[in-house]
DNA sequence: GAAATAGTGTCTGTTAGACATTATTTC
DNA sequence: GAAATAATGTCTAACAGACACTATTTC
């Protein structure tokens, strides 16, 4: 096959599509400006010649583009799916104790086939005149009403048959939403949206040797629990107190579980890192895999890039910050060491918590400079 | 908008396409098995009900899928582009000195519009019955003849207008090929393929405050140099000696440069991390951005996950390994510290280098167990 | 005063950086 | 013996883990 990109030579390019079908296919002005960022933050600069060079058929670029035909080979739909994380705390029975905080993810119950009744990540199609990032931001806004958050592209999933209807790839994103009142939007599906508490734990670990190579498999259990989902908008909209706590109602808990295997294969020279859904109960499509990859990315970024600060409200105590770290990493941290490391990332304020049943704690805010330098 | 995925409700779904147009759109059997990995390593497990549930229109899943219509909204083409890295050394004038090693990337000169005459990453379209990973592996094989390598998905690029012809997204991959003889394939474009030495250096750094936020911009200079490209297949196929060195011919050097800006914006809560091509001379499309992201990912993985071992041949000296680290990270490392850290990753052999003009050096091989545990 | 959290001090073992020293081969 | 690299030793500063201890508020 040829190395040419997007000329479709190997997939047939002669049969034209009805021009009607192409009305969304933008052909921007490219006289002197190549791949623009369009809309967002400035255009990319480019020095290539302004279209005077002629190709093998003697055409200038302008002539080439005017005659260009998209061809009728198959194209996939591309969706943007969102793994929206937050950390929130439950109300504690004992008025003196601090609430336990847990990592949560937003899911939506499917009302139609396929995976009818299963829970899925919010998402939607990327439209012709937007980037995948913009589609993700749009979905997030529509789903949670939140606009200014941390958003990161995770991975593009393209397994054959991952959507039984048609060829659909999905570009997965992770979003971090802080733990103040989250107003899950009153879209036409808001009654089917719910926050799920999430655990993702290593269940087992196996190493296998085979002819000069090693296969290392790790099994993780992904468990998602929602309290009071299905009770409609009220649940999702109730939101949290200013301290990010909410009461839970154990009556109608929903529990979804999946086993995700991560398999590292290393034979001579080759190396693959595959995720596989070994068991899945209640999650739609390959979303268990997306959530698993999102958590692993989140943990990595929290440890390396202090990403947890994105989950904090304006003012917070260092213990709250530590709890967020602990909820995400799913392990306990030592207080003294944690405070040493957190110290350069935050700034003292003169405010303190009050009436907490114990010694008040100083409130901090994110430091303006010292974090977020993602290497 | 609705949260429904892939039903196209917001983009119109009533107008059917000619069935001819859909012959590539697989509709796998989903009676009891959801999103399969198809082909590769096992099917994903799934417990959802086997299609007896009925949706709002009273249809079972089977009925739904039979009636399902892909709709005629616009779909993008999706390409897989490859940033193929290797490290190779030039012949040194002084017989005693060790050759300098440099990081290289494979580029292909475009023979058609757009970007006629510019250099591009090898790549090709993802086909209907393969994953993006498979498309990337296929391209790599076609381009270099190499099959068993390290391959990692990097990022999906979807800027509007990034391809002037039509709507094309690109899923970028990074591949690591070891430094033994690389046989760049005799495809119809092989005469236009060449390895480019690569440097990627921080040029400047600026911080700017604006209303409660900080913008941190880093400018990088990407410089690609090829010696003797354009001399046809011979150049690309000549390959390297067993020690990964080759002679260079300074006569017809090609130099491409680009300035890539990475901009970290942090306003209250929000946070973005954008790459922008500020200047571009000789690279097609947004490929300067892809190469920049690939190097940053590579550096991160080399530091954290010892990925450089993938670039080594069967037997190598610790100094060679250190040189590969240094070429990738673009900084010098201390020998003693390096050897301490490398020691658990490699295994001694009883072989030594010979006739090198100085003390022989022990040869090592990759350890079977102790590396590649990508966290 | 009991219960709880807030906040600090300090010991210790590990590790990265820096530099120095010795060893060995080829020509 | 000169030139080069190979290989190891050791000092130090920084840092993470571990644990103990003091402080302060609410009820």
UniProtKB/TrEMBL annotation, chains A, B:
Residues 1-60 are annotated as: Disordered. Residues 75-230 form the Nudix hydrolase domain. Coiled coil: none annotated. CDD domains: NUDIX_NadM_like (cd18873). Pfam families: NUDIX, WHD_NrtR. One of its GO terms (molecular function) is hydrolase activity. It comes from Saccharibacillus brassicae. It comes from the Bacteria. This is NUDIX hydrolase. Residues 15-30, 40-60 have a biased composition (Basic and acidic residues). Keywords: Hydrolase. InterPro entries: Nudix_hydrolase, NUDIX_hydrolase-like_dom_sf, NUDIX_hydrolase_CS, NUDIX_hydrolase_dom, WH-like_DNA-bd_sf, WH_DNA-bd_sf, WHD_NrtR. Belongs to the Nudix hydrolase family.
